[in-house]
Design goal:
mainly beta, six-stranded mixed sheet, three-stranded antiparallel sheet, 10% helix
Length: 199
């Protein structure tokens, strides 16, 4: 995101989010008082995760006729755990990921040797319409159900039929409904505000 970090409600210009950001999930640390992100019932190094971006304020907060709007879905993510203390971390270089996806599409036989990460819905840059005030853009990290041995791997989350209302066709429908229908549990979130400069 042009070097700009999302920090729980900071303001970012639409220009700064015109291209897909790198994805980073890491321990919350402030001195020694914050817990590190360790394996739990929802944060596991043997599970896959889905990262989404949604706008609950489309077309505007006062008239959310298009809400929620799906802006991005990346699935097949996995956490790495250090062998020493099992502290979890996740970092996806999106530019490299998208380049890898393009190679896989051009040369399908490479797919089996590639990462399981895939872009289920391409990145749709936040672009609040003029005179609609600030929009909240919310990132959500979703965990899949535990992998069970000797059980075939699930196909994974299904792509929404369309971006507005996450394909449900009703105002207010969104990532919560989609996650529930796909057996995904929220385990992390972050958000930023953006607005059109014409107000």
């Amino acid at each position: 995101m042009s070097g700009k970090a999302v920090e729980l409600g900071n303001t970012i210009t639409p220009k700064a989010v015109s291209s897909a950001p790198d994805l980073i999930a890491h321990p919350i640390e402030q001195g020694d008082t914050w817990p590190k992100l360790r394996p739990t019932t929802t944060i596991r190094n043997n599970a896959t995760y889905t990262f989404v971006l949604t706008d609950p304020d489309a077309t505007s907060r006062s008239d959310p006729a298009m809400a929620e709007m799906c802006h991005w879905i990346v699935t097949g993510l996995q956490f790495d755990a250090s062998s020493e203390d099992q502290v979890m971390s996740l970092h996806v270089d999106v530019t490299a990921m998208l380049d890898n996806l393009r190679v896989r599409e051009a040369v399908p036989e490479r797919a089996r040797h590639s990462s399981s990460v895939k872009e289920l819905m391409s990145y749709y840059p936040p672009a609040p319409p003029p005179k609609t005030g600030y929009h909240r853009y919310i990132f959500v990290l979703l965990a899949s159900k535990p992998v069970v041995k000797h059980v075939p791997t699930a196909i994974g989350p299904k792509k929404p039929k369309e971006r507005p209302h996450w394909g449900y066709g009703k105002v207010g429908k969104g990532v919560r409904d989609w996650a529930s229908d796909n057996g995904l549990t929220p385990v992390g979130a972050n958000f930023f505000y953006a607005e059109n400069k014409t107000q």
